[in-house]
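Q: Can someone sanity-check these two? First one:
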Amino acid sequence: MPTPQEQEQPLLLDPDQETAYEEAEKVHIVGIDSDSEADGARPFSWRKLWLFTGPGFLMSIAFLDPGNLEGDLQAGAIAGYSLLWLLLLATAMGLLVQLLAARLGVATGRHLAELCREEYPTWAGMVLWVMAEVALIGADIQEVIGSAIAIRILSDGFIPLWAGVIITALDCFIFLFLENYGVRKLEAVFAVLIATMALSFAWMFGDAKPSAKDILLGIVVPKLSSRTIKQAVGVVGCIIMPHNVFLHSALVQSREIDHSKKFRVQEALKYYSIESTLALLVSFIINLFVTTVFAKGFYGTDLADNIGLENAGTYLQEKYGSGIFPILYIWGIGLLAAGQSSTITGTYAGQFIMGGFLDLRLKKWLRALITRSCAILPTIAVALIFDSSEGTLDVVNEWLNVLQSVQIPFALIPLLCLVSKEQVMGTFKIGPFLKMVAWIVASLVIVINGYLLLDFFSSEVSGTIFTTITLVLTAAYVGFIIYLVSRAKQCNHSFSLKQKPEGIDVAFE
């Protein structure tokens, strides 16, 4: 059993294990070696906020990937402005989840995949790993297909979808090239991509001129009908993405934090909270731009049910094509920025997930290549099989959004379990109120998943064999969630604490 002194400190990383970042790769924070501020009042520092800025914006890419754009445009076209409140609520829930992931990474010096390997039995850890990989592959298919569609738009149809997939697949080498120049250079590239998305979709917003009154009412007045349930599930599913929880808990370790000083950890958490909030505010505005453009142009029309990533640019051009610059290409540029940035962060997340769950010590280029291959091969198959007619890719994208929602509990429940444990977090474990709010969010997502499964049974399942297989898989899915929840409630079970490195005092001041 851990001693009282051990319970006051978080679970720190064993130096012999795989790490998210080597010490030489981390960003040095101004004043990290100075104790003059110690436990007294520490004034807000714009310079420190700037140095901590980066991980939150990389994390926010998952809120802006092609899957989100698919969900945005369909929500706008089919539901009009009525789901804007849900977009805001889902973004707020996503922010809570990401702040908890950042808290876990900062306080422990380890990321979620590594801690899951320690917390759960081998069989459960392997199931969680498989679920995380499935979610990542599903997201990556959307991201690569989205990039390929953008490339086809910008090349006036000269480059086929499968060739666009191959071009996008090469971005892992761009990622490796950029990573060699340091974390800050990589973050700067993503800042440019986010700015490109913001400018592109803001231009579209300016061309469409949606009603400010309708936007405000859509945000503050909750509405939901049976016709828009699927779009609502898609909005929640593509905002809170499982692989992004693993990613953010690792990204925050790119800053050099002195874990032996409690106030330094608190300082890091403060600046990361501000940065993440700003990043997701930007992502919400961009998602709102896309949703409202399609709500203004296509809600209530005969085209509403047929619009997706594949044909959205064409319909936009027909509706708003009289501007200074063809809106088709503006859409293509924004979609390309979303696809390219999200595929690179997907590769990044895949490295952390694979390395953490399997404790792999592979070279980065090899791990990136393996991660990329796991997603590219099924993506090429999807591109070749489902590109036969207009709309088939959009159906695939829609169900991939739903897949993200189904996978959320397998990242969210372990996260809530770990950030609530004193053996893991020390004094940085979450309090009762935050814990209650987090579990309400998790329960809401699980209830949505339950509705989705029931809807699937009623509309898709037919035949004795198919029904039996689906029932077995659903029972296993529900059973594993129950196992994770029951284990999370076992607050006093033993946890294998790692020995701290000899000669290093990790007790908080």
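And here is the second, same format, sequence then tokens:
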Amino acid sequence: MSEIVNEFWEKYLNQLHLHPLRTKAITAGVLVGCSDVIAQKISGIKKLQLRRLFLMMLYGFAYSGPFGHFLHKLMDKIFKGKKGNDTVLKKVLLEQCTSSPWNNLFFMIYYGFLVEGRAWGLVRSKVRKDYPSVQLTAWKFWPIVGWVNYQYMPLQLRVLFHSFVASCWAIFLNLKARSVVAAVKKA
């Protein structure tokens, strides 16, 4: 079994080297898809919603993976040649002040508007209501992930690590979004 895992890992690293953007996009799409399947099952959906799954995988493939790819390349350029805890802290702070708020806002809009098919007014209202608590929760969780990512992960594996953790975060966001839908249906 370990030979199979090692062989797969070597092939994955080779693809990451030869086609970094494509590999990161596909990886993010698959991981977001897996997190959506898990979120659907946890939230009690009996039959897998394939349209929703497709749209979530599209989010990972077209946005999350490429965004992470270019974000980490940009961070490496901004802090070129700089190492140490101070640099890691600056990277984490920069990420948390820029991409974290944007990514959570974009996800909430994408999910409400495209995945759930809500009207813009409802999406905007939900974002106004839930975004502050989502972002505050993100600031309690993601700086630790960012620290580990910038401190211990080589550049080529940062998007993979981030995408893996983000798949867990997406389960949280999916369940948060679903809990609002369930509350609206009960009212």
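A (reply): Looked at the second one. The chain has one domain: 1-185. The helical segments are 2-18, 20-42, 50-78, 85-97, 99-115, 120-152, 155-186.
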